[in-house]
Amino acid sequence: MTDEEPISYMALVPGTEVCTADGTTIGTVEHVLQEPDLDLFDGIVVAVPRGIRFIDRDQITTITTAKVTTSLTVADAAQLPEPEGNPVYHVNALQDVGPKLTARLGRMFRREHWIKDE
Fold it and tell me: How far apart are CA 88 and CA 91, in angstroms?
């Protein structure tokens, strides 16, 4: 597969570059918003320097293995809203890796730490 080959939103990988219509990078894909039971794509949440922002599916023009291109201008991207709804949490799987005492205690007591996405 080449970088410019279109892919489905279901194959979109977190960390994929997100660009404006003129090719300016505005952030990376944090996660895809979808309704799996209805096979409905709602949009993407993008990690930008000031937090996370929501891009609606109608503002996305192409999705490839290399990047997501939007119909937004740089000015539009600066005004993107924060996602609405419940906060999203994830586990840092590499937290207790390494020789330090805190990592050893974490492995010994199977400590779980949930990190709130911002």
Answer: 11
Q: What's the token pair of residue 84?
A: 């609405």
Q: Which residues pair with 31 in a beta bridge?
A: 45
Q: How far apart are CA 76 and CA 5, in angstroms?
A: 26
- Rg of the chain in Å (alpha carbons): 17
Pairing of strands 67-70, 89-91: unpaired
Could you report how far apart the first and last alpha carbons of the chain are, in Å? 33
Burial 21-56 (b: 16+ CB within 10 A, else e): eeeeebbbbbbbbbeeeeeebebbbbbbeeebbbbe
- CB of 44 closer than 8 Å to CB of 52: no
Whole-model pTM: value is 0.69
Tens digits of pLDDT across the chain (118 residues): 455 789 999 899 999 999 999 999 999 999 898 887 888 899 999 999 888 999 999 999 999 999 999 999 999 999 998 887 766 565 555 555 566 676 666 666 665 554 555 5
